[in-house]
Amino acid sequence: MKIVEHHLVQLAAVIETGGVTEAAAMLGMTQSAVSRTISILEKRVGEPLFVSGRRPMQPTPLGEQLGLQGKAILASSRKAMEIIRSFKSGSSGRVRIGGVPFFMDAVISPMIASFQRDEPGIMVHQSYGNYPELVSELESGQIDLAVTPTGSVDLNADHHFEPLLPARNVLACGTGHPLVRKRSLATEDIVNYPWVAPLPGSPLVLDLHNILLTLGLEEVSIRYAGGSLLSLINYLTGTDALAILPLSVAHSFRRENKISVIPLDIPQPERALGIMTKKKPYSNPAGRKFMGHLRREFSELRRVLEKHEREIDWAHGPFMAERKGGA
């Protein structure tokens, strides 16, 4: 004997509403269709499912037990419809985002937090990687989008890149570093202090080489390498070391009074930071809503950083003359 699930759903509706007509209205069916289903179900089980002559309709013990199963199916069906509606509206679901480590920790994680204050039903999974790893993860479907710096020559034909913020680096140090207050900077000022190396694979590695090339130097003294962003900040606060950081990352620590920006105009990379996705991603309304949030946050961040740059009293002196002469 096979019981059809939607027959149990109709039985549960009759029990819940107390009548066939009412159940039909609740389910969007005709009264005759629901009545026929109850009749078929009683014949199939060989037992009455409702007490005869009772109004509102009262289930027999067997009818009540079968009705509980139908109620569970009905509840699951309603829940499924809620999930579908919520998914299509972008109010629930999952977003998997990958990005370069320092920027994810300093800038993107607060953006995720502000997003989820308004969208608590969306789960965000964050991972780390540099450009090659992020491209691979996009292609394999491990992430939905990447936040990464890249130049036009790096772009893959299968991916879409939306630039949101021009790359801008600064020299960073601990608060109170002697170079912060020095108005005339020479090459030896940079050479005489130890440096923190950028993470392996980071585009900041190439940026550091470009700075050295501009200065006509082969290398600087690297004393610390491989640490996380928090490790780097803690190291800078306890030493006179220097590090190259994205302006947006350095700016994110402005309220903590741990690091400062040395007001020195350094060679800047020809790339932008933005959102990279597959050109034909699978449907993910939550992901589209999250990207809209990132666009708004980046727009405000860009405005704030441009204002911050205008407020910095950039140093002029021998270094600037060397920089211009070697450009």
Brief account:
With 327 residues, the protein is of the alpha/beta class. The protein has 13 helices and ten strands. It has a five-stranded mixed β-sheet, sandwiched between helices. Strands 8-5-9 form a three-stranded antiparallel β-sheet. A two-stranded parallel ribbon has the order 6-7.
Q: How would you describe the overall organization of this protein?
A:
With 327 residues, the chain is α/β, with parallel strands linked by helices. It has a five-stranded mixed beta sheet with strand order 2-1-3-10-4, with helices on both faces. Strands 8-5-9 form a three-stranded antiparallel beta sheet. Helix 1 crosses helix 3 and helix 2 packs across helix 3. The chain is rod-shaped, with a radius of gyration of 32 Å. The termini are far apart. The C terminus is likely disordered.
Count of discrete structural domains: 3
Q: What is the correct CATH architecture of the largest domain? A: 3-Layer(aba) Sandwich
Q: Largest sheet at a glance?
A: 5 strands, mixed
N→C terminal distance:
86 Å
DSSP strand count: 10
Mean of residue pLDDT values: 88
Instruction: Give the class from helix and strand content and strand pairing.
Output: alpha/beta
Principal-axis shape equals rod-shaped
pLDDT below 50 for ≥5 consecutive residues: which ranges?
317-327
Percent strand equals 15-25%
How many alpha or pi helices? Answer: 13
**CATH class of the largest domain, please?**
Alpha Beta
* CATH fold title of the largest domain: D-Maltodextrin-Binding Protein, domain 2
CATH homologous superfamily heading of the largest domain:
Periplasmic binding protein-like II
Name the helicity range.
40-55%
Tell me the radius of gyration: 32 Å
